[in-house]
Design brief:
Number of helices: 13
Number of strands: 10
Shape: globular
Strand order of the largest sheet: 1-2-4-5-6-7-8-9
């Protein structure tokens, strides 16, 4: 081996270590940590609450996932806010309802949504300096405000369990300063805070669920309902009560917010869609990055050439994350639970 090749090899190895450290020990110092959140790409786990993915929700957080996903049901056929994939009247999940780190893998699973939030708080208390974690909430059948499961009650529940660990819409406006009146103003003028300024925080993303989207009788989807909620709170100076960022679900050319009323569009700065759709011709992916918008892309394994949905080769998975980062994805959602070094990746976006 030549002497001149050794420094290059060492540099490459060190760069890989920085990118692939587990989340609870991730090295977020340096240029990446000083970058706005919207200039970085990280990796999450689809339907993180399912027991076949992890025995307990805390396992995904310990594995380094930057996004976890919870599916929530609110219909009148069952009590409270239920967390499951296909059971609309009961719970089927890996949440333990922990009140301390010692209970994260000791409590009974199949908790209501509040119990999942308790796990997040208990894990946070054990790792208070953790990198930011996006909590993606799919409202499977939307909000049901007449039964006490509307946007206001959602905020109250989240605040009661997570408190000031939530980075919400008012925090984004505060970061931008008094000239920003909407979330769109905030990200276009000041962007998102740096990743290291968001340590110890949860960001909640809300999307309408598959059941609601397929119901022809339901047009008041969760995204529109929550954006309306934000607009109304802002009008009365109550935005500090809000906890979530509604996401525009599914991809289309141009600005996909045209599907909403003009007054609601500035409250959407998070976008969510299938990775294969996001990278197709006609989608200006740089538009999202240039404007400071966050983009969650799902089913990363389906982008051609398709990868194994659960356990691809690590080098192939890493290449896919880097490819999607180059296409301006903010978070790459995967089912790659056996690959913690991939789940803890953080790289430059775009």
């Amino acid at each position: 081996m030549s002497r001149t090749s050794l420094p290059a090899i060492v540099t490459t190895v060190l760069a890989a270590v920085v990118v692939l450290l587990p989340a609870t020990a991730r090295a977020d110092s340096g240029a990446s940590a000083r970058s706005p959140l919207s200039d970085l790409t990280s990796v999450g786990v689809h339907n993180t609450y399912e027991k076949q993915r992890y025995p307990y929700l805390a396992d995904a957080l310990d594995a380094g996932a930057s996004l976890i996903e919870l599916d929530v049901w609110t219909n009148a056929l069952g009590p409270d806010w239920r967390v499951s994939h296909s059971n609309p009247i009961g719970n089927d999940n890996n949440c333990a309802g922990a009140f301390s780190a010692a209970e994260l893998r000791a409590g009974s699973r199949d908790q209501f949504f509040g119990g999942c939030l308790d796990d997040l708080r208990a894990w946070h208390d054990a790792h208070p300096d953790h990198p930011p974690v996006v909590v993606k909430v799919e409202m499977k059948d939307g909000f049901t405000a007449p039964f006490g499961r509307g946007p206001r009650e959602f905020d109250a529940l989240v605040r009661s369990r997570l408190g000031d660990t939530v980075f919400g819409p008012a925090d984004l406006l505060a970061h931008a300063g008094p000239s920003a009146a909407t979330l769109d103003d905030a990200v276009r003028t000041a962007g998102w805070p740096a990743a290291n300024a968001l340590r110890g925080k949860f960001l909640i993303e809300l999307i309408p669920g598959t059941v609601q989207e397929s119901n022809p009788l339901d047009t008041w989807w969760a995204d529109r309902a929550y954006a309306t909620h934000l607009s109304e709170l802002a009008r009365v100076g109550g935005l500090g009560l809000a906890t979530a960022f509604p996401a525009v679900h599914n991809v289309q050319a141009g600005d996909p917010r045209v599907r909403y009323e003009a007054g609601l569009r500035p409250w959407f700065v998070v976008f969510d869609g299938d990775a294969s759709d996001f990278v197709r011709d006609g989608i200006d992916t740089e538009w999202y990055h240039d404007n400071g918008y966050l983009v969650v892309v799902t089913d990363a394994h389906k982008v051609s050439p398709a990868l194994d949905p659960v356990a691809p080769r690590e080098e192939d998975a890493r290449a896919r994350v880097l490819e999607l980062a180059g296409r301006s994805a903010s978070i790459v959602s995967t089912d790659w639970t056996p690959l913690p070094r991939i789940l803890s990746m953080v790289t430059e976006r775009g």
